[in-house]
């Protein structure tokens, strides 16, 4: 009993130390949320709409996010990155089909032109979500923040859906998810 209590106390101390490491103000999650709250329209004229986060069918597998982003005016920009509250890592990907085989590859610097909408949707551009927190539940919302190449950000709420609760139109079972090939 004494040994088990000692092991538990040691593990608890390690958890507290590691938990304190996540409180740094320069962490991606803290800075994205803080800047979104401080300046909700940091990217003037740029809007994110129809944002959806689809939870993975199996815990530990990647989820996916879709949205539309439009720039009303100004110089052409590029989407440099996307952050989703409650997700460890979000990556822009695009689906490509070659010789009848669909696969994904990373998409970098997605162009955003004035007066046009870039659609992140099934079968095209999309956001792969890795390390989806158990706290994200279907029916709730989370925040998605898009960062442009000039550092401006735009945030919007994203409806959270389960694969079963969604339309099921993003079947990734036939795609090659081996990131070592990219």
Commentary on this structure:
The structure is a single chain. With 182 residues, the protein is α+β, with helices and mostly antiparallel strands. It has helices at 2-21, 28-38, and strands spanning 46-54, 63-71, 77-84, 87-98, 101-106, 110-112, 116-120, 125-132, 141-148, 153-161. Strands 1, 2, 3, 4, 5, 6, 7, 8, 9 and 10 form a 10-stranded mixed sheet that branches. Strand 4 and strand 5 (101-106) form a beta hairpin. The radius of gyration is 19 Å and the shape is globular. Mean pLDDT is 76; it is low at 1-41 and 166-174.
Shape: globular
User: Residue-averaged pLDDT, rounded?
Assistant: 76
Residue fraction in strands:
35-45%
Task: Give the oligomer, counting copies of the same chain as homo and different chains as hetero.
Answer: single chain
Order of helices and strands: HHEEEEEEEEEE
The helix-and-strand class reads: alpha+beta
Task: From the alpha carbons, calculate the radius of gyration and give it in angstroms.
Answer: 19 Å
First and last CA, distance: 50 Å
Count helical runs. 2
Instruction: Specify the helix fraction band.
Output: 10-25%
The tally of strands reads: 10
Low-confidence stretches: 1-41, 166-174
Major beta-sheet overview? 10 strands, mixed
How would the blueprint of this fold be written?
Layout: H1 2-21, H2 28-38, E1 46-54, E2 63-71, E3 77-84, E4 87-98, E5 101-106, E6 110-112, E7 116-120, E8 125-132, E9 141-148, E10 153-161
Parallel strand pairs: 1-10
Antiparallel strand pairs: 1-2, 2-7, 2-8, 3-6, 3-9, 4-5, 4-8, 9-10
């Amino acid at each position: 009993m004494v040994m088990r209590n000692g092991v538990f106390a040691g593990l608890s101390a390690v958890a507290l130390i590691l938990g304190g490491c996540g409180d740094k103000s320069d962490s991606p999650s803290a800075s994205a949320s803080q800047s979104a709250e401080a300046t909700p329209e940091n990217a003037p004229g740029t809007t994110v709409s129809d944002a959806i986060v689809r939870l993975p069918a199996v815990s530990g597998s990647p989820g996916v996010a879709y949205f539309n982003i439009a720039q009303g005016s100004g110089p052409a920009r590029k989407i440099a990155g996307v952050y989703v509250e409650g997700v460890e890592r979000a990556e822009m990907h695009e689906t490509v089909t070659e010789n009848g085989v669909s696969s994904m590859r990373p998409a970098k610097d997605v162009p955003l032109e004035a007066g046009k909408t870039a659609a992140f949707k099934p079968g095209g551009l999309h956001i792969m979500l890795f390390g989806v927190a158990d706290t994200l539940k279907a029916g709730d919302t989370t925040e998605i923040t898009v960062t442009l190449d000039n550092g401006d950000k735009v945030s919007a709420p994203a409806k959270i859906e389960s694969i079963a609760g969604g339309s099921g139109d993003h079947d990734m079972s036939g795609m090659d998810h081996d990131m070592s090939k990219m």
